[in-house]
Structure to design on (437 residues):
């Protein structure tokens, strides 16, 4: 026990700096196998997994017996000498001199055998400990860091928008309603209306937080609660908005490649596909997207409808980078979108579709800055003018061209990690049929 008391506590991800030294690790038993005089303990501590080799001749008989009986996910502290090992995925292993059982785990429900998705989702609180989930959530955290750094380092002011809101932003059909004293409130679908006001106060702003959509769709791309970052810039038009979106997405991918390569390898992600994400991205109009769909065998794709997941997949397969599709039919887009001065049927909006069939990751565009046009848009969308009076004020007092977009974090994580479904991209997903754990 003396070594345990004196050896420094080190995290697995820092172990490379301690070659040849005696250290203590604090973690959990991930896996174990034994052969005669040796026990091989795979110990994880939240930053990585390391093989700890317990040789009978190096430890007391009590410690050897203890090590042989530790159950999966028991909490353990292990002391030993750090040794270079070329066969190890992390390049090092631990030659154990002492083991302390902090807390023995009961029989662990998640075993190396295959489990069904429903079972794993019911055990999400434990599933997070597995190496794949660990890699995904660490990449998610890196993506979020990259998002914040990008805006913080480029002159944007963070504006926290409210979660309780009095009215809809992205259509009335997918609003979560909640009691608010004597009234009703809605969980925010987007902070956009608020960052538009803030852009007139601060120039370049962004909000970043959870967003709610009562989507009655059980697709692999829809969550009911997801995280969205929404930059908004005064004096920006659609072209500048697209330039920013492109630069921003390149930055995110580059940061993940720089800091989370090991995690991408755990996920067996094809890294060359991510390395190809460089500026410029292809830009096509909605009309050109329709042509692509028709040429791809969907001859009767109608003009004037929004694209679903299947259409997005077909279009994305034409490119090895994200594609920007701009100028959709105004009729199918939100009331706040500026109409194209060259064709009143079109909106000055843009969607960014991720490659490899991961769907729309960004939606945005230039905003209607003309008070009268906006008033008539509210009417055609049957939205109550009264509820938007504060929003209309932005057009009354020094209205300027402005633009912005929203990037969905979970779809971005799904794309970068190469995941089929968004349910694994957030620690505790909220789906139409899942509110627990
Ligand atoms: O295209 P959306 O609805 O755009 C807006 O909300 C704008 N107000 C943003 C803006 O201009 N400030 O949503 C933006 C992005 C989508 O491209 C997608 O990545 C993500 O948010 N998203 C969802 N992600 C997961 N589950 C859902 N139900 C999502 N709905 C949208
Ligand atoms: Mg959209």
């Amino acid at each position: 026990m003396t070594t345990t008391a004196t050896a420094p506590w080190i995290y697995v991800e820092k172990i490379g700096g301690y070659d040849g030294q005696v250290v203590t690790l604090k973690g959990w038993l991930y896996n174990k196998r034994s052969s005669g005089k040796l026990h091989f303990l795979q110990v994880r501590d939240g930053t990585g997994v390391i093989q700890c080799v317990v040789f009978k001749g190096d430890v007391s008989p009590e410690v050897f017996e203890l090590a042989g009986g530790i159950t999966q996910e028991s909490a353990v502290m292990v002391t030993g000498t750090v040794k270079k090992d070329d066969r190890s995925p992390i390049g090092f292993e631990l030659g154990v001199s002492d083991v302390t059982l902090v807390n023995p785990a009961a029989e662990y429900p998640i075993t190396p055998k295959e489990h069904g998705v429903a079972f794993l989702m019911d055990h999400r609180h434990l599933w997070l400990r597995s190496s794949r989930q660990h890699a995904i959530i660490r990449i998610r955290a890196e993506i979020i860091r990259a998002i914040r750094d990008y805006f913080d380092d480029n002159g944007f002011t963070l504006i926290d928008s409210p979660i309780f809101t009095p009215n809809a932003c992205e259509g009335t059909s997918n609003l979560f309603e909640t009691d608010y004293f004597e009234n009703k409130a809605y969980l925010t679908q987007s902070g956009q209306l608020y960052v538009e006001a803030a852009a007139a106060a601060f120039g370049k702003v962004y909000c970043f937080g959870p967003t709610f959509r009562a989507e009655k769709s059980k697709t692999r791309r829809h969550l009911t609660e997801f995280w969205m970052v929404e930059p908004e810039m005064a004096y920006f038009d659609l072209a500048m908005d697209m330039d920013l979106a492109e630069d921003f997405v390149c930055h995110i991918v580059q940061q993940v490649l720089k800091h989370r390569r090991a995690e991408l390898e755990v996920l067996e992600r094809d890294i060359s596909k991510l390395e190809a994400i460089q500026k410029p991205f292809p830009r096509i109009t909605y009309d050109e997207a329709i042509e692509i769909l028709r040429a791809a065998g969907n001859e009767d794709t109608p003009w004037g409808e929004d694209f679903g997941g299947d259409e997005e997949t077909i279009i994305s397969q034409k490119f090895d980078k994200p594609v920007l599709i701009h100028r959709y039919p105004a009729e199918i887009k939100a009331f706040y979108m500026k109409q194209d001065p060259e064709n009143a049927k079109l909106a000055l909006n843009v969607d960014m579709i991720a490659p490899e069939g991961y769907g729309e990751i960004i939606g945005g565009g230039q905003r209607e800055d003309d008070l009268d046009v906006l008033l008539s848009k509210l009417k055609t969308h049957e939205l109550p003018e009264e509820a938007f009076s504060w929003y209309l004020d932005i057009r009354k007092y020094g209205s300027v061209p402005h633009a912005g977009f929203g990037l969905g974090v979970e779809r971005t994580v799904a794309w970068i990690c190469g995941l089929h479904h968004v349910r694994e991209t957030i620690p505790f997903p909220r789906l139409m049929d899942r509110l627990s754990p």
